[in-house]
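User: Can you write out an input/output pair for a complex, sequences first and structure second?

Assistant: Here is one pair. Inputs:
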Amino acid sequence: KAGVTQTPRYLIKTRGQQVTLSCSPISGHRSVSWYQQTPGQGLQFLFEYFSETQRNKGNFPGRFSGRQFSNSRSEMNVSTLELGDSALYLCASRSTPGQGRSYEQYFGPGTRLTVT
Amino acid sequence: AQSVTQLDSQVPVFEEAPVELRCNYSSSVSVYLFWYVQYPNQGLQLLLKYLSGSTLVKGINGFEAEFNKSQTSFHLRKPSVHISDTAEYFCAVSAYSGSRLTFGEGTQLTVNP
């Protein structure tokens, strides 16, 4: 079974621009979560989507948003980029919440975003 | 809300030596406990998990962890490490009812020849 894939793997943007990151979950997984990883703040939860609906949201400003499509693929958008948004953005998928081994989350390789 | 503290930011050891990476957590609700490993320029890989039952859990690559409810700890151990175990290790918790993972700050394990 193919793992979680994220595109692009690397991205360089300028302050003030916006960016969209993509995540394709493991086949059959319907929940997708996003995390931000920085040297200063560590790994922080951004949000989770299930069946095209946001189920949970971390403590991030409204510039960070996401969506999920009917095929479970998810995108994350950051508008008006700031230098502090430079980070590794990780996506994780799991099976239907409350069923089977849904407590296990599988991570993709991440997208490294650099804001200059 | 949950919080996780990894007591050592860096742990250097020699090859074939035993290692213990320490993790304490705090939560007002019942939680699942996890250890993840991250190699350079990669995502997170699940090493092992504690859900319930036996407090000693075994994972991949020869790692094991022991859940101690009274001390709210979940320390990771390996009896003999290899150079290839050099990586960053993260302890994490999630509430039974949710999926949000709360991570510790990470421990960089460096195995020297």
